[in-house]
Amino acid sequence: MKNENRHKRRNRYMKRTPIRGLLAAALLATTLWSGTPAFASDIGEEIRIDGNQPAVSKAGFDISGEYAVWIVEGEKTITVYDLEEETEVKIGDKQSDKTNPRVDGQYVVWIDSRHGGSDVYLYDIVKKKEIRLTDGTATPVEVEISDSNVVWSDLRDGKSDIYLYSIKTGEVTRVSNSGKASHPTVSSGYVAWEDKRSGNADIYYYEIAKKQEKAATTNRSDQTNPSLYLDKIVYENDKSGDVDIYVYSIGSGKEKQLTDDSEDQILPALYRDSYVFVSDGDLRLGDIDESGSDEIESRIYEKLPPRIYGDYVLFAKQDQDKILRIKLYNLDDEEPVGIGGMSGEPSQPDGDDRYVVYISETKNAAHVILHDLETKTNTIVSKSGSEPIRPLVSNRYVVWYDEDEEALISYDIKRGQRKQVTDEDADPSDSLYELFGNKLLWVDQGRRYDLYVTDLSSGDTEEITSLRDEPLTIDIYDNFVLWVTDEGSDRGSIYLYDLDEEDETEIRRDVQLQGASLGENFVVWSEHTTKTNSYDLYYYDIDRGRTDLVIRWTERDQVDPQASRRMVFFADNRISVDKKDYYYELYDIEDGSFSPYYWSDDAEIEQPRLSGNRLVWIDTRDSDDPAVYTMAFARPNDDDDDDNGGDVPGDGEYKEYNFQKVFDDGTLADVLGKSEFDKVFFVFRAGTNEEVAISISDIFEDSSEFIKWMNSTRFDDIVIRVYN
């Protein structure tokens, strides 16, 4: 229920000479410590977590038939989303950069850098098979696919031409010879592209069956950015002084102007008779057989062209934090719809200093979603096709119960690894488990109810106690374990166990209870008082071994307490007209006062959880759009993570940056803020047998080695490697 997290940051370098080595160290320290962590958002500020529009990179996206594809920001795999099943899978290796993901039918293509240059790769979704289409001699920069045809523009030999690959035959054909061809598009029978052989940009096409190249338009003006469907090509044309959308029919050989506006109309995409384009930042829809167009969405991201297929339009838009998100618009229903495995209805949230987890459930699937408050990104951490419930997060671990496997599953955020915690012989409860750091408290409900603590970092498991009956509740915080035995008639006894001393203490015996929880050096519970006919809050000071009253109100109740750090969150009806109407309060045990930080008046809180430095809940203030909300009541905990797993994060995913480039373009601070100190490395002589990697954590402990390498290495030869 509670979590401790450590936030750290990153680094970068400069040029030669001893003084610059010292300056690099000084700059590093200044950059890292000059601001607060990105996830340490203002205390008391509500944050709405939205998974309906995935955060994506600028590498591109596509939609066709049953699937949509994109690359999540910060990832290197390609997400393939099944529009019907509402499930997603990741394809491609986890190390290489990828761009231009495209999909048609059962095939996905993209440009991949895994061999040091760039190559075109193809993935068969049905066969789950990946194929490299180019052999290293190609230099592809754009790729498209339709039916069994793959096309790309290729910069080999210092020229730019279009190549066609047939999935059916495996044959590669060069379809242009001008050396000035780009922006290819393809259908089942034709390839079209933009060509500057005459000095200005024209549209040319290639008939696949006849193996013939022809000009579509060769006006003195520029015709650019073609999009092809069957034998129709839509494209941009600036013959009127501004840019308009035109269509060319290969069958009739006729050209037709589709738009006529003083604003530029750009980035057309065609499907059957429908086409989309962008005008003054707005996404619009038109029909090639009719005049006029309708606005779909305003202020979209213009650097990535929209895509259209069937009843769907896929496009990108930046949110208020400048994060790029893809959105899906249903043309039939004339409304936006959720996309991605995170687009389902949220439930069962939990939180930590840096992370929030919850279940996203669609009509066909359920997923555990991990939201990073620092990067503002969402990740599906559960296995596709599994049945997860009740996720918890603390520090670097996420834990949930899988109803299909009937087991507890953990996910290591740092390493990106998922594993089953309980073996086949165990029968873990699907509701009685709690998490603190790397310690998982759980109940094995066999012949008896056995409480165990499993160290997720080592896999070691320790039995705490064995109970005859199912406990009413359990909890863990720091080195203490809590359980409440069931004495019948809503009565229970509260026990506290010290993991270090292996000592059990009964702190309350056979009292009428409504909830108990562990906080920082205290236990809090709701106990019925006969004299006042009310449920009152009590707490037990672990250091002093003393019980005190927190709140009492005659014939009014404070119930279901949750504790984290020194805070207690509970349901209260003291000021309600009707005793059945409860509201929520947040109380500081240490100060003996109510918290000054509160959620907004219009909040509709359901399924609340207090953990780490924050409260998380499902909010139904927008009845048609329930969402996960969170609010921090304290700064993130800066305690060290005792389980770093070594100096180098192993073979995990990472991204590399050139130090000179990020130093010159002013993005050094952004790069340094992307991960934790022990996951960001300055790499000298990268890719050689003499490679040296020094983490930020090591630099702060002893900067001499770092300064030595900075003084002996050119800035543009230094790599910053950031592990996920």
Automatic annotation (TrEMBL):
<dbReference type="InterPro" id="IPR027618">
    <property type="entry name" value="Beta_prop_Msarc"/>
</dbReference>
<keyword id="KW-0732">Signal</keyword>
<protein>
    <submittedName>
        <fullName>Uncharacterized protein</fullName>
    </submittedName>
</protein>
<feature type="signal peptide">
    <location>
        <begin position="1"/>
        <end position="40"/>
    </location>
</feature>
<dbReference type="InterPro" id="IPR011042">
    <property type="entry name" value="6-blade_b-propeller_TolB-like"/>
</dbReference>
